[in-house]
Write a structure and sequence with these properties.
- The chain has one domain: Alpha/Beta hydrolase fold, catalytic domain (Rossmann fold), CATH 3.40.50.1820.
- Helix content is 35%, strand content 18%.
- It is α/β, with parallel strands linked by helices.
């Protein structure tokens, strides 16, 4: 029992060290409507390095990327993990933007996160991303990064979408709300999900024109959203390999 206790303490210590040693700072900026947005900035390289803006899934926060962003730093990317106004907490990290949004008596739907996402991309481009800029979404935000890329040519240089789908039909949007925007995408796109989620996004994938698109499905079940990259999933390394293969094109040769 004593040895087990020591092992548990060592494991927890390693996890704590992993979080503590991640080099980031928490910052804030204004959304389109003036709402203050919280984000974690992982600036490990000069601003000419490629940059990824990271958006979380439903009921989550910027904490979804506490274990992912340091890996992206190690690959040569700077990153910004954003709290959108639609979310909650993740990895014990509270979504501060969602708290502010709720504190003023407003209820939200997924599409209400769009102003925060667009503001984050423009803020990153203006202040930190002097090279290639990519946008990365998880679940509902995976759909929205595809929409943003299609509706705003030139805003992003690439897109990664983890478990996107046409999630907005019950929010007053049509059944092809995302596909209609995806038809206008002109930058490289990477889509992935759990194995059984392909039917939710494949029509979106087919809508994207050209040959600069790719997708990955794990050999077994996999996981939903960006969480698929967490090391406690058996397929996490398969996902990481696919992600790295896609990201190579944005690194300086």
């Amino acid at each position: 029992m004593k040895r087990l206790s020591i092992l548990i303490i060592l494991v927890l210590g390693c996890v704590a060290f992993s979080f503590a040693s991640s080099s980031f700072k928490t910052i804030g900026f204004s959304s389109k409507d003036g709402l203050q947005v919280t984000a974690d900035l992982y600036l490990a390289h000069p601003t000419k390095a490629p940059f990824i803006v990271l958006f979380h899934q439903a009921r989550a926060s910027r904490g979804e990327y506490r274990m992912i962003a340091p890996e992206l730093n190690a690959l040569g990317f700077n990153a910004l993990a954003v709290d959108q106004r639609i979310g909650d907490s993740f990895n014990a990290i509270t979504n501060e933007t969602a708290n502010r949004f709720g504190a003023v008596g407003k209820s939200g739907a997924y599409v209400e996160a769009l102003p925060d996402m667009e503001a984050a991309i423009k803020y990153a481009r203006k202040n930190y991303a002097k090279g290639k800029l990519l946008i990365w979404g998880s679940s509902y935000s995976a759909s929205l990064v595809l929409k943003i890329a299609g509706d705003n040519p030139g805003l992003a240089d690439g897109v990664l979408a983890f478990s996107p789908g046409e999630y907005f039909g019950n929010l007053g949007k049509g059944p092809s709300y995302i596909s209609e925007s995806a038809r206008k995408i002109v930058v490289p796109v990477f889509i992935t999900s759990s194995h059984n989620e392909k039917s939710q996004w494949f029509s979106i994938f087919e809508s994207i024109p050209g040959e600069m698109k790719t997708y990955f499905l794990p050999p077994s079940d996999g996981a939903h959203g960006s969480s698929a990259l967490f090391e406690y999933y058996d397929t996490s390394q398969d996902y990481w390999k696919a992600v790295k293969d896609f990201l190579k094109q944005f690194l300086p040769s």
